[in-house]
Amino acid sequence: MTTEPDDDGTTTTAGGTTSAGRAIVLDVIGLEPDHLDRGLAPNIADLVGEPARATLEPPFPAVTLPVQTTLATGRSPESHGDVSSGEYDREHDVAAFWERDRADRDRLWETASDAGLTTGVFCFQHLIDTTADVALTPSPIEDEDNNILEMNCWTNPDDFYDDLREELGHFPLHTYWGPGANEESSTWILDAASEAIERHDPDLLWIYVPHLDYDGLRHGSSDELDDAIGVVDDLVGEFIDGLRGDDRWDETVVNVVSEYGFHDVDTPVFPNRALRDAGLLSVMDDGEGGEEVDLGSSRAFAMVDHQVTHVYTDEGSVDDAREALAPLDGVERVLGGEGKVEYGVDHPSAGDLVLVAESSAWFQYYWWREESDAPYYATDMDIHAKPGFDPCELFFGDSGLASLDPTLVGGSHGRRDCEGFYGLGGPAAPASVPETVDARTVAPTLVDVLDIDVEMEFETDPL
Questions:
Q1: Tens digits of per-residue pLDDT, 435-449?
Q2: Coil, helix or strand for 447?
Q3: Is the same domain home to 236 and 304?
Q4: Environment class of residue 145 by beta-carbon count within 10 Å: exposed (0-12), middle (13-18) or buried (19+)?
Q5: Based on the domain organization, do 56 and 196 belong to the same domain?
Q6: What is the total count of domains within the chain?
Q7: Which residues are 13's β-sheet partners?
Q8: E-assigned strands of 294-419?
Q9: Of 463, 441, 424, 435, whose CA–CA distance to 23 is shortest?
Q10: How does pLDDT run across 223-242, given as a tens digit for each residue?
Q11: Domain that holds residue 408
Protein backbone atom coordinates (compact mmCIF):
# COMPACT_ATOMS: atom_id res chain seq x y z
CA MET A 1 0.00 0.00 0.00
CA THR A 2 1.29 3.48 -0.82
CA THR A 3 0.96 6.24 1.75
CA GLU A 4 2.06 9.83 2.01
CA PRO A 5 3.08 11.36 5.36
CA ASP A 6 1.27 14.49 6.44
CA ASP A 7 2.56 17.37 8.56
CA ASP A 8 0.74 16.08 11.63
CA GLY A 9 2.26 12.62 11.38
CA THR A 10 -0.78 10.91 9.89
CA THR A 11 -0.89 9.17 6.53
CA THR A 12 -3.11 9.68 3.53
CA THR A 13 -4.20 6.52 1.76
CA ALA A 14 -3.39 6.36 -1.91
CA GLY A 15 -4.67 2.95 -2.87
CA GLY A 16 -3.96 -0.65 -1.93
CA THR A 17 -2.03 -3.61 -3.23
CA THR A 18 -4.62 -6.33 -2.70
CA SER A 19 -8.17 -6.17 -3.94
CA ALA A 20 -11.59 -7.55 -3.10
CA GLY A 21 -14.69 -6.57 -5.02
CA ARG A 22 -16.98 -6.40 -1.98
CA ALA A 23 -16.54 -5.83 1.74
CA ILE A 24 -19.17 -6.56 4.38
CA VAL A 25 -18.61 -5.25 7.92
CA LEU A 26 -20.58 -7.01 10.66
CA ASP A 27 -20.45 -4.99 13.88
CA VAL A 28 -21.40 -7.71 16.38
CA ILE A 29 -21.46 -5.72 19.62
CA GLY A 30 -19.80 -7.38 22.61
CA LEU A 31 -18.24 -10.35 20.80
CA GLU A 32 -14.93 -11.38 22.37
CA PRO A 33 -12.19 -13.81 21.23
CA ASP A 34 -12.97 -16.02 24.23
CA HIS A 35 -16.47 -16.61 22.87
CA LEU A 36 -15.00 -18.31 19.81
CA ASP A 37 -12.34 -20.11 21.84
CA ARG A 38 -15.08 -21.66 23.98
CA GLY A 39 -17.00 -22.86 20.93
CA LEU A 40 -19.98 -20.55 21.51
CA ALA A 41 -19.98 -19.05 17.99
CA PRO A 42 -19.27 -21.88 15.53
CA ASN A 43 -20.64 -20.06 12.47
CA ILE A 44 -18.44 -17.03 13.03
CA ALA A 45 -15.51 -19.33 13.81
CA ASP A 46 -16.09 -21.16 10.53
CA LEU A 47 -16.09 -17.85 8.66
CA VAL A 48 -13.04 -16.41 10.41
CA GLY A 49 -10.21 -18.93 10.76
CA GLU A 50 -7.83 -18.69 13.72
CA PRO A 51 -4.97 -17.00 11.81
CA ALA A 52 -7.38 -14.24 10.79
CA ARG A 53 -8.76 -13.56 14.29
CA ALA A 54 -7.51 -10.92 16.67
CA THR A 55 -8.20 -9.01 19.84
CA LEU A 56 -9.58 -5.55 19.03
CA GLU A 57 -8.04 -2.69 20.98
CA PRO A 58 -10.80 -0.05 21.14
CA PRO A 59 -10.14 3.64 21.64
CA PHE A 60 -10.86 5.29 24.97
CA PRO A 61 -13.64 5.57 25.84
CA ALA A 62 -14.79 2.16 24.66
CA VAL A 63 -18.42 3.21 24.27
CA THR A 64 -20.69 3.23 21.24
CA LEU A 65 -20.21 6.49 19.40
CA PRO A 66 -16.49 7.05 20.00
CA VAL A 67 -15.71 3.50 18.86
CA GLN A 68 -18.02 3.62 15.83
CA THR A 69 -16.50 6.88 14.62
CA THR A 70 -12.98 5.54 15.17
CA LEU A 71 -13.75 2.35 13.24
CA ALA A 72 -15.23 4.31 10.34
CA THR A 73 -12.67 7.15 10.17
CA GLY A 74 -9.40 5.58 11.29
CA ARG A 75 -8.92 8.37 13.81
CA SER A 76 -8.98 8.64 17.61
CA PRO A 77 -11.59 10.49 19.70
CA GLU A 78 -9.22 13.39 20.39
CA SER A 79 -9.07 13.89 16.62
CA HIS A 80 -12.63 13.21 15.43
CA GLY A 81 -14.26 14.72 18.52
CA ASP A 82 -16.72 12.00 19.53
CA VAL A 83 -15.49 11.59 23.10
CA SER A 84 -18.82 10.28 24.40
CA SER A 85 -22.15 9.01 23.12
CA GLY A 86 -23.54 12.29 24.40
CA GLU A 87 -22.55 15.90 23.97
CA TYR A 88 -22.61 18.83 26.37
CA ASP A 89 -23.28 22.23 24.84
CA ARG A 90 -21.45 24.60 27.17
CA GLU A 91 -22.91 27.72 25.56
CA HIS A 92 -26.55 26.70 26.05
CA ASP A 93 -26.11 24.38 29.07
CA VAL A 94 -27.70 21.39 27.34
CA ALA A 95 -26.61 17.76 27.59
CA ALA A 96 -27.98 15.43 24.91
CA PHE A 97 -27.36 11.82 23.93
CA TRP A 98 -27.50 10.40 20.38
CA GLU A 99 -28.39 13.76 18.79
CA ARG A 100 -25.13 15.13 17.44
CA ASP A 101 -24.97 15.95 13.72
CA ARG A 102 -22.26 14.20 11.75
CA ALA A 103 -21.23 17.66 10.48
CA ASP A 104 -18.05 17.36 8.39
CA ARG A 105 -16.91 14.06 9.90
CA ASP A 106 -17.00 11.89 6.80
CA ARG A 107 -16.83 8.18 7.47
CA LEU A 108 -15.70 5.45 5.12
CA TRP A 109 -19.17 4.77 3.74
CA GLU A 110 -19.35 8.42 2.65
CA THR A 111 -15.84 8.78 1.24
CA ALA A 112 -15.95 5.39 -0.52
CA SER A 113 -19.21 6.46 -2.14
CA ASP A 114 -17.47 9.62 -3.35
CA ALA A 115 -14.71 7.38 -4.73
CA GLY A 116 -17.20 5.52 -6.90
CA LEU A 117 -18.22 2.51 -4.80
CA THR A 118 -21.83 1.72 -3.97
CA THR A 119 -21.94 1.88 -0.19
CA GLY A 120 -24.45 0.96 2.49
CA VAL A 121 -24.80 1.26 6.26
CA PHE A 122 -27.45 0.04 8.69
CA CYS A 123 -28.26 1.39 12.16
CA PHE A 124 -24.99 3.09 13.03
CA GLN A 125 -25.28 6.35 14.92
CA HIS A 126 -25.77 9.72 13.21
CA LEU A 127 -26.81 8.43 9.80
CA ILE A 128 -29.50 10.95 8.91
CA ASP A 129 -28.37 12.82 5.78
CA THR A 130 -25.47 10.45 5.15
CA THR A 131 -24.44 10.24 1.50
CA ALA A 132 -24.12 6.45 1.61
CA ASP A 133 -26.10 5.02 -1.28
CA VAL A 134 -28.12 2.65 0.91
CA ALA A 135 -28.72 3.61 4.52
CA LEU A 136 -31.21 2.99 7.30
CA THR A 137 -31.62 4.30 10.83
CA PRO A 138 -34.70 4.19 13.08
CA SER A 139 -36.44 7.58 13.14
CA PRO A 140 -39.91 7.27 14.68
CA ILE A 141 -42.34 10.15 14.32
CA GLU A 142 -42.96 11.59 17.79
CA ASP A 143 -45.11 14.30 19.36
CA GLU A 144 -43.74 17.14 21.49
CA ASP A 145 -43.71 14.86 24.55
CA ASN A 146 -41.61 12.21 22.72
CA ASN A 147 -44.54 9.82 22.43
CA ILE A 148 -44.24 7.72 19.27
CA LEU A 149 -47.01 8.51 16.81
CA GLU A 150 -45.75 6.28 14.03
CA MET A 151 -42.82 3.92 13.54
CA ASN A 152 -40.56 5.09 10.76
CA CYS A 153 -36.96 4.84 9.52
CA TRP A 154 -34.84 7.36 7.69
CA THR A 155 -33.41 5.72 4.58
CA ASN A 156 -31.47 6.17 1.40
CA PRO A 157 -33.11 5.85 -1.09
CA ASP A 158 -36.14 7.71 0.31
CA ASP A 159 -38.63 4.93 -0.38
CA PHE A 160 -36.41 2.07 0.81
CA TYR A 161 -38.15 1.76 4.19
CA ASP A 162 -41.52 1.45 2.42
CA ASP A 163 -40.14 -1.50 0.49
CA LEU A 164 -38.69 -3.08 3.61
CA ARG A 165 -41.91 -2.62 5.54
CA GLU A 166 -43.80 -4.52 2.84
CA GLU A 167 -41.31 -7.38 3.05
CA LEU A 168 -40.46 -7.45 6.75
CA GLY A 169 -43.04 -5.35 8.59
CA HIS A 170 -42.17 -2.29 10.66
CA PHE A 171 -38.79 -2.07 12.33
CA PRO A 172 -39.33 -3.60 15.82
CA LEU A 173 -38.20 -0.59 17.84
CA HIS A 174 -39.37 -2.06 21.17
CA THR A 175 -36.84 -4.89 20.74
CA TYR A 176 -33.98 -2.57 19.70
CA TRP A 177 -33.54 -1.07 23.17
CA GLY A 178 -35.37 -1.18 26.49
CA PRO A 179 -36.75 -3.93 28.73
CA GLY A 180 -38.12 -5.78 25.70
CA ALA A 181 -34.81 -5.74 23.78
CA ASN A 182 -34.10 -9.09 22.17
CA GLU A 183 -32.89 -10.78 18.98
CA GLU A 184 -35.89 -9.65 16.92
CA SER A 185 -34.28 -6.31 16.07
CA SER A 186 -30.99 -7.95 15.00
CA THR A 187 -32.96 -10.39 12.86
CA TRP A 188 -34.79 -7.52 11.16
CA ILE A 189 -31.57 -5.58 10.55
CA LEU A 190 -29.81 -8.57 8.97
CA ASP A 191 -32.87 -9.39 6.84
CA ALA A 192 -33.01 -5.75 5.72
CA ALA A 193 -29.31 -5.89 4.86
CA SER A 194 -29.95 -8.98 2.74
CA GLU A 195 -32.69 -7.07 0.93
CA ALA A 196 -30.24 -4.20 0.34
CA ILE A 197 -27.74 -6.61 -1.19
CA GLU A 198 -30.39 -8.06 -3.49
CA ARG A 199 -31.83 -4.68 -4.53
CA HIS A 200 -28.78 -2.38 -4.53
CA ASP A 201 -25.69 -4.65 -4.59
CA PRO A 202 -23.39 -2.47 -2.42
CA ASP A 203 -19.62 -2.87 -2.71
CA LEU A 204 -19.17 -1.82 0.93
CA LEU A 205 -21.85 -2.54 3.53
CA TRP A 206 -21.65 -1.84 7.29
CA ILE A 207 -24.22 -3.61 9.51
CA TYR A 208 -24.84 -3.01 13.22
CA VAL A 209 -25.87 -6.20 15.07
CA PRO A 210 -26.85 -5.17 18.64
CA HIS A 211 -28.14 -8.37 20.26
CA LEU A 212 -25.18 -9.26 22.52
CA ASP A 213 -25.14 -5.76 23.98
CA TYR A 214 -28.40 -6.40 25.82
CA ASP A 215 -27.39 -9.44 27.82
CA GLY A 216 -23.83 -8.18 28.21
CA LEU A 217 -25.22 -5.17 30.08
CA ARG A 218 -27.98 -7.03 31.85
CA HIS A 219 -26.04 -10.03 33.08
CA GLY A 220 -22.31 -9.73 32.40
CA SER A 221 -20.57 -13.12 32.19
CA SER A 222 -23.43 -15.57 32.56
CA ASP A 223 -25.38 -18.42 31.07
CA GLU A 224 -27.75 -15.81 29.64
CA LEU A 225 -24.90 -14.13 27.77
CA ASP A 226 -23.62 -17.50 26.50
CA ASP A 227 -27.10 -18.25 25.17
CA ALA A 228 -27.22 -14.84 23.48
CA ILE A 229 -23.88 -15.55 21.77
CA GLY A 230 -25.41 -18.69 20.28
CA VAL A 231 -28.47 -16.77 19.10
CA VAL A 232 -26.48 -14.05 17.35
CA ASP A 233 -24.12 -16.65 15.88
CA ASP A 234 -27.09 -18.41 14.31
CA LEU A 235 -28.32 -15.10 12.86
CA VAL A 236 -24.89 -14.29 11.43
CA GLY A 237 -24.65 -17.82 10.05
CA GLU A 238 -27.93 -17.43 8.18
CA PHE A 239 -26.82 -14.09 6.78
CA ILE A 240 -23.44 -15.51 5.64
CA ASP A 241 -25.20 -18.47 4.00
CA GLY A 242 -27.11 -15.94 1.91
CA LEU A 243 -23.85 -14.28 0.88
CA ARG A 244 -22.32 -17.63 -0.02
CA GLY A 245 -25.21 -18.25 -2.39
CA ASP A 246 -24.85 -15.06 -4.45
CA ASP A 247 -22.68 -14.47 -7.50
CA ARG A 248 -20.23 -12.11 -5.71
CA TRP A 249 -19.16 -14.43 -2.91
CA ASP A 250 -15.79 -15.24 -4.50
CA GLU A 251 -14.80 -11.55 -4.38
CA THR A 252 -16.10 -10.92 -0.86
CA VAL A 253 -14.26 -10.15 2.37
CA VAL A 254 -16.27 -10.13 5.61
CA ASN A 255 -14.95 -8.06 8.51
CA VAL A 256 -16.38 -9.11 11.89
CA VAL A 257 -15.72 -6.48 14.55
CA SER A 258 -17.28 -5.98 17.97
CA GLU A 259 -16.48 -2.39 19.14
CA TYR A 260 -15.78 -3.51 22.74
CA GLY A 261 -16.05 -6.29 25.29
CA PHE A 262 -17.59 -6.24 28.77
CA HIS A 263 -16.51 -6.13 32.38
CA ASP A 264 -18.65 -7.73 35.07
CA VAL A 265 -19.80 -4.98 37.43
CA ASP A 266 -21.40 -4.77 40.85
CA THR A 267 -20.69 -1.18 41.95
CA PRO A 268 -22.81 1.71 40.61
CA VAL A 269 -21.19 5.12 41.21
CA PHE A 270 -23.13 8.39 41.43
CA PRO A 271 -20.89 11.37 40.64
CA ASN A 272 -23.77 13.86 40.41
CA ARG A 273 -24.84 13.01 43.96
CA ALA A 274 -21.30 13.74 45.15
CA LEU A 275 -21.24 17.04 43.27
CA ARG A 276 -24.59 17.96 44.79
CA ASP A 277 -23.42 17.09 48.31
CA ALA A 278 -20.41 19.35 47.72
CA GLY A 279 -22.65 22.25 46.72
CA LEU A 280 -21.50 22.16 43.09
CA LEU A 281 -24.64 20.79 41.41
CA SER A 282 -28.00 22.55 41.65
CA VAL A 283 -31.48 21.14 41.05
CA MET A 284 -34.88 22.62 40.30
CA ASP A 285 -38.49 21.45 40.12
CA ASP A 286 -39.08 19.48 36.92
CA GLY A 287 -42.71 20.62 36.80
CA GLU A 288 -44.09 17.18 37.64
CA GLY A 289 -43.01 16.76 41.24
CA GLY A 290 -39.46 15.60 40.68
CA GLU A 291 -36.02 17.17 40.67
CA GLU A 292 -34.32 18.20 37.47
CA VAL A 293 -30.67 19.21 37.37
CA ASP A 294 -30.26 22.95 36.83
CA LEU A 295 -27.27 23.00 34.49
CA GLY A 296 -27.23 26.78 34.20
CA SER A 297 -26.89 27.26 37.96
CA SER A 298 -24.57 24.31 38.60
CA ARG A 299 -20.85 24.83 39.07
CA ALA A 300 -20.15 21.25 38.03
CA PHE A 301 -22.08 18.49 36.26
CA ALA A 302 -21.21 14.88 35.39
CA MET A 303 -22.30 13.43 32.04
CA VAL A 304 -21.99 9.67 32.53
CA ASP A 305 -21.45 7.03 29.85
CA HIS A 306 -21.00 3.50 31.20
CA GLN A 307 -17.53 3.33 32.83
CA VAL A 308 -16.52 6.86 31.82
CA THR A 309 -17.79 10.24 33.00
CA HIS A 310 -17.11 13.71 31.60
CA VAL A 311 -17.27 16.38 34.30
CA TYR A 312 -17.95 19.93 33.12
CA THR A 313 -17.21 22.74 35.54
CA ASP A 314 -17.33 26.49 35.82
CA GLU A 315 -14.00 28.27 35.80
CA GLY A 316 -12.43 27.95 39.23
CA SER A 317 -14.43 24.85 40.26
CA VAL A 318 -12.22 22.10 38.81
CA ASP A 319 -10.29 21.47 42.03
CA ASP A 320 -13.50 21.41 44.08
CA ALA A 321 -15.03 18.87 41.69
CA ARG A 322 -11.91 16.70 41.81
CA GLU A 323 -11.95 16.78 45.61
CA ALA A 324 -15.60 15.67 45.65
CA LEU A 325 -15.21 12.88 43.10
CA ALA A 326 -11.78 11.31 43.57
CA PRO A 327 -12.65 9.56 46.90
CA LEU A 328 -15.78 7.82 45.52
CA ASP A 329 -15.78 4.06 45.79
CA GLY A 330 -15.41 2.72 42.24
CA VAL A 331 -13.46 5.64 40.76
CA GLU A 332 -10.05 4.46 39.54
CA ARG A 333 -8.70 7.66 37.99
CA VAL A 334 -9.63 11.31 37.63
CA LEU A 335 -8.08 12.63 34.42
CA GLY A 336 -7.12 16.28 34.12
CA GLY A 337 -5.17 17.92 31.31
CA GLU A 338 -2.25 15.49 31.20
CA GLY A 339 -4.49 12.50 31.81
CA LYS A 340 -6.75 13.39 28.90
CA VAL A 341 -3.71 13.55 26.63
CA GLU A 342 -2.53 10.16 27.95
CA TYR A 343 -5.95 8.59 27.32
CA GLY A 344 -6.49 10.18 23.90
CA VAL A 345 -9.49 12.40 24.72
CA ASP A 346 -7.84 15.81 24.80
CA HIS A 347 -10.57 17.55 22.79
CA PRO A 348 -12.71 20.66 23.46
CA SER A 349 -15.81 18.45 23.73
CA ALA A 350 -14.32 16.49 26.63
CA GLY A 351 -15.05 17.32 30.24
CA ASP A 352 -12.69 19.44 32.32
CA LEU A 353 -12.23 16.22 34.27
CA VAL A 354 -12.79 12.67 33.01
CA LEU A 355 -13.54 9.86 35.47
CA VAL A 356 -12.51 6.28 34.78
CA ALA A 357 -14.27 3.56 36.75
CA GLU A 358 -12.66 0.55 38.32
CA SER A 359 -13.28 -2.59 36.26
CA SER A 360 -16.13 -3.72 38.55
CA ALA A 361 -17.83 -0.31 38.66
CA TRP A 362 -19.91 1.91 36.37
CA PHE A 363 -21.43 5.40 36.50
CA GLN A 364 -25.13 6.26 36.83
CA TYR A 365 -26.44 9.79 36.24
CA TYR A 366 -28.78 10.05 39.29
CA TRP A 367 -28.56 13.20 41.43
CA TRP A 368 -31.50 12.33 43.75
CA ARG A 369 -31.54 9.93 46.69
CA GLU A 370 -35.28 9.33 47.18
CA GLU A 371 -37.18 7.75 44.27
CA SER A 372 -40.01 10.22 44.84
CA ASP A 373 -37.58 12.98 43.80
CA ALA A 374 -36.60 11.39 40.50
CA PRO A 375 -37.37 13.48 37.39
CA TYR A 376 -40.38 12.52 35.31
CA TYR A 377 -38.28 10.82 32.62
CA ALA A 378 -36.26 8.59 34.96
CA THR A 379 -38.73 5.69 34.75
CA ASP A 380 -39.47 6.23 31.05
CA MET A 381 -37.78 5.07 27.87
CA ASP A 382 -36.46 8.56 27.11
CA ILE A 383 -32.89 8.29 25.89
CA HIS A 384 -32.79 11.87 24.56
CA ALA A 385 -34.04 13.53 27.78
CA LYS A 386 -31.62 11.79 30.14
CA PRO A 387 -28.30 13.64 30.48
CA GLY A 388 -26.41 10.37 30.77
CA PHE A 389 -26.55 6.79 29.51
CA ASP A 390 -29.03 4.69 31.49
CA PRO A 391 -28.66 0.88 31.28
CA CYS A 392 -31.49 0.54 33.80
CA GLU A 393 -33.78 1.02 30.79
CA LEU A 394 -33.09 -2.65 30.03
CA PHE A 395 -35.15 -3.67 33.08
CA PHE A 396 -38.87 -3.20 33.72
CA GLY A 397 -39.50 -0.85 36.64
CA ASP A 398 -41.91 -1.09 39.54
CA SER A 399 -43.47 2.31 38.79
CA GLY A 400 -42.69 2.76 35.11
CA LEU A 401 -41.21 1.18 32.01
CA ALA A 402 -37.61 1.60 33.22
CA SER A 403 -36.19 0.45 36.54
CA LEU A 404 -34.60 2.73 39.13
CA ASP A 405 -32.52 -0.10 40.62
CA PRO A 406 -28.91 0.21 39.38
CA THR A 407 -27.86 -2.95 41.23
CA LEU A 408 -29.56 -4.95 38.47
CA VAL A 409 -26.87 -4.05 35.92
CA GLY A 410 -24.37 -6.89 35.53
CA GLY A 411 -21.97 -5.68 32.84
CA SER A 412 -20.44 -2.49 31.53
CA HIS A 413 -17.70 -1.12 29.28
CA GLY A 414 -15.77 2.02 28.48
CA ARG A 415 -12.31 1.43 29.97
CA ARG A 416 -9.31 1.01 27.70
CA ASP A 417 -9.10 -2.70 28.58
CA CYS A 418 -12.61 -3.52 27.27
CA GLU A 419 -11.11 -5.47 24.41
CA GLY A 420 -13.30 -6.80 21.64
CA PHE A 421 -13.02 -9.05 18.59
CA TYR A 422 -11.65 -8.48 15.11
CA GLY A 423 -11.58 -10.94 12.25
CA LEU A 424 -11.49 -11.22 8.47
CA GLY A 425 -13.18 -14.02 6.54
CA GLY A 426 -14.52 -14.89 3.13
CA PRO A 427 -12.80 -15.90 -0.12
CA ALA A 428 -11.10 -12.53 -0.68
CA ALA A 429 -9.84 -12.09 2.91
CA PRO A 430 -6.17 -12.02 3.90
CA ALA A 431 -5.00 -15.30 5.37
CA SER A 432 -3.90 -13.87 8.71
CA VAL A 433 -3.94 -10.79 10.92
CA PRO A 434 -1.81 -9.71 13.92
CA GLU A 435 -2.79 -10.95 17.38
CA THR A 436 -4.06 -7.50 18.34
CA VAL A 437 -5.62 -4.88 16.07
CA ASP A 438 -5.97 -1.18 16.87
CA ALA A 439 -9.53 0.01 16.10
CA ARG A 440 -8.05 2.83 14.02
CA THR A 441 -6.70 0.20 11.61
CA VAL A 442 -10.12 -1.06 10.47
CA ALA A 443 -10.89 1.74 7.98
CA PRO A 444 -7.47 1.84 6.27
CA THR A 445 -7.46 -1.96 6.03
CA LEU A 446 -10.83 -1.91 4.24
CA VAL A 447 -9.51 0.78 1.88
CA ASP A 448 -6.48 -1.40 1.21
CA VAL A 449 -8.49 -4.56 0.65
CA LEU A 450 -10.90 -2.80 -1.72
CA ASP A 451 -8.00 -1.01 -3.47
CA ILE A 452 -9.68 2.38 -3.62
CA ASP A 453 -8.54 6.00 -3.39
CA VAL A 454 -10.35 7.99 -0.69
CA GLU A 455 -9.84 11.47 0.68
CA MET A 456 -9.21 10.44 4.26
CA GLU A 457 -6.26 10.85 6.59
CA PHE A 458 -5.63 7.85 8.81
CA GLU A 459 -3.58 7.63 11.99
CA THR A 460 -2.36 4.08 11.27
CA ASP A 461 -1.36 2.00 8.27
CA PRO A 462 -3.52 -0.97 7.17
CA LEU A 463 -2.74 -4.44 8.45
A1: 999 999 999 999 999
A2: helix
A3: no
A4: exposed
A5: yes
A6: 2
A7: 3
A8: 300-305, 308-313, 331-335, 353-357, 361-363, 411-412
A9: 424
A10: 999 999 999 999 999 999 99
A11: 267-412
pLDDT band, residue 306 (cuts 50/70/90): very high
Give me the pLDDT at residue 102, please.
64
- Secondary structure class of 351 (helix, strand, coil): coil
CATH number, domain with residue 106: 3.40.720.10
Residues paired with residue 437 on neighbouring β-strands, in sequence order: 56
pLDDT digits (tens, 9 = 90+) for 61-78: 999 999 999 999 999 999
Q: Is 146 left (phi over 0), alpha (psi -120 to 50) or beta?
A: left
Domain-embedded: residue 227: yes
Q: How far is CA 245 from the centre of its chain?
A: 31
CB 39 within 8 A of CB 49: no
Q: How many Cβ atoms are within 10 Å of 166's Cβ, its own excluded?
A: 8
Residue 434: Cβ-neighbour burial (10 angstroms; 0-12, 13-18, 19+): exposed
280 pLDDT exceeds 80?
yes
Q: Among 376, 394, 412, give the residue marking a domain's end.
A: 412
Residues 187 and 40 both lie in one domain: yes
Q: Is residue 329 part of a domain?
A: yes
